[in-house]
């Protein structure tokens, strides 16, 4: 077997601590299965093991966006073509059972049969940094919201004198006043002092989170402007929207075959809902909902500020379309514009004219 130059295909079932690999030839014969650690050393051993069986053509990997992200990054760096594989459906599992070797073999067979064709996101560039920072910012914003709600709830049930002294202040001054409270540590058993200590603690958390969010925003702004200068320059597209759309497209947007595929990925591709004499499209509930939200907010800005968009809305309204239907059309047009802009930005070619 060693030294053979026959073409082989790998499949990997990924988990947190270990990855199980299988290899088949182009005739579908299983050549071997084995388990490896989910570590850099394990990735090297897995790749060397696959190449023992012949010329490695492709590797199907489950979970390229989670447990398989590290392996996927290692294989791409080594020049191996990686195919993203979905988990086997329930019918297949009922017929064949469930085990790591079975799932790894199923991943390889999905690549051989052509039922798995998706390219995973390339996580080796600036877009991966943007994604990681956005995760951190999202968590900080959620924690800040929870802290603000906690501050307000604590203030609502505070002793009357303390509540009346603080309730008249707006948010920013309220947080500052609460952070400046000086409870008597020797009298925390008294409700006034205990509540002061609680308010001061929560306000300090809010201030720290505000600082953290501001720092993350500055980092994200610099990276997004670097990665997608023409995309962020478009009307209605801010750092938050451009960052999300970059993450949705990935560092390698060529994995999305066309602007129509990008529209489907963002959940703005039209879905027919016609019947009889009625011809219409309905809301698409699929795709990346955060990317859909980014396009939705950008369309709202354009409907308010862009003369071209306002003229389009007026014309389509006269044709009998409702506002939600018009917005769905605008989101589809915007997806086309953003797709071409992101592709050219990530290729370093600059922007294009608005479509």
Report strand order across the widest sheet.
3-2-1-4-5
Radius of gyration: 27 Å
Count of alpha/pi helices: 14
Please describe the biggest sheet, giving its number of strands, its sense, and whether it closes into a barrel: 5 strands, mixed
| The number of domains | 3
**Overall spatial form:** globular
Q: How helical, in percent, are the residues?
A: 55-70%
Distance from N terminus to C terminus (CA atoms, Å) equals 56 Å
As an assembly, this protein is single chain
Poorly predicted runs are: 349-355
What integer is the average pLDDT? 89
Structural class: alpha/beta
How many beta-strand runs? 7
Strand content: 5-15%
- SSE string, helix = H, strand = E? EEEHEHEHHHHHHHHHEEHHH
What labels would you give this structure?
3 domains; 14 helices; 7 strands; Nucleotidyltransferase, domain 5; 355 residues; alpha/beta
Architecture blueprint of SSEs:
Elements: E1 7-14, E2 18-25, E3 30-37, H1 40-52, E4 55-62, H2 69-77, E5 81-85, H3 90-96, H4 100-113, H5 126-156, H6 160-166, H7 171-179, H8 191-227, H9 229-232, H10 239-249, H11 259-265, E6 271-272, E7 281-282, H12 289-305, H13 307-318, H14 323-346
Parallel strand pairs: 1-4, 4-5
Antiparallel strand pairs: 1-2, 2-3, 6-7
Helix pairs in contact: 1-2, 5-8, 5-10, 7-8, 8-10, 10-12, 11-14, 12-13, 12-14
């Amino acid at each position: 077997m060693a030294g053979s130059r026959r073409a082989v295909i790998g499949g990997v079932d990924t988990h947190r601590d270990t990855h199980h690999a299988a290899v088949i030839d182009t005739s579908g014969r299983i050549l071997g299965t084995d388990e490896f650690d989910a570590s850099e050393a394990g990735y090297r051993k897995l790749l060397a093991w696959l190449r023992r069986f012949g010329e490695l053509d492709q590797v199907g990997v489950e979970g390229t966006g989670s447990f398989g992200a590290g392996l996927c990054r290692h294989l791409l760096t080594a020049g191996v073509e990686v195919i993203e594989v979905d988990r086997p459906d329930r019918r297949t599992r009922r017929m064949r059972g469930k085990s790591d070797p079975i799932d790894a073999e199923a991943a390889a067979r999905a690549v051989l049969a052509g039922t798995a064709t998706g390219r995973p996101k390339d996580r080796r560039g600036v877009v991966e940094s943007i994604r990681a920072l956005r995760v951190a910012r999202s968590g900080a914003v959620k924690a800040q919201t929870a802290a603000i709600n906690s501050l307000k709830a604590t203030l609502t049930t505070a002793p009357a004198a303390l509540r009346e002294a603080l309730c008249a202040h707006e948010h920013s001054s309220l947080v500052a006043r609460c952070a400046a409270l000086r409870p008597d540590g020797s009298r925390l058993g008294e409700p006034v002092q205990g509540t002061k200590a609680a308010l001061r603690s929560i306000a300090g958390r809010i201030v720290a989170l505000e600082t953290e969010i501001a720092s993350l925003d500055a980092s994200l702004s610099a990276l997004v402007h670097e990665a997608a200068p023409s995309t962020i320059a478009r009307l209605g597209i801010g750092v938050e929207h451009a960052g999300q759309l970059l993450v949705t497209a990935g560092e390698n947007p060529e994995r999305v075959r066309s602007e129509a595929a990008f529209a489907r990925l963002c959940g703005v591709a039209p879905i027919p809902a016609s019947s009889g004499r009625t011809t219409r499209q309905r809301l698409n509930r699929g795709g990346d909902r955060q990317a859909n939200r980014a396009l939705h907010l950008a369309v709202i800005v354009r409907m308010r500020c862009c003369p071209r968009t306002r003229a389009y809305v007026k014309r389509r309204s006269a044709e009998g379309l409702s506002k939600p239907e018009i917005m769905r059309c605008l989101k589809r047009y915007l997806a086309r514009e953003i797709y071409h802009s992101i592709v050219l930005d990530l290729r370093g070619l600059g922007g294009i004219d608005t479509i």
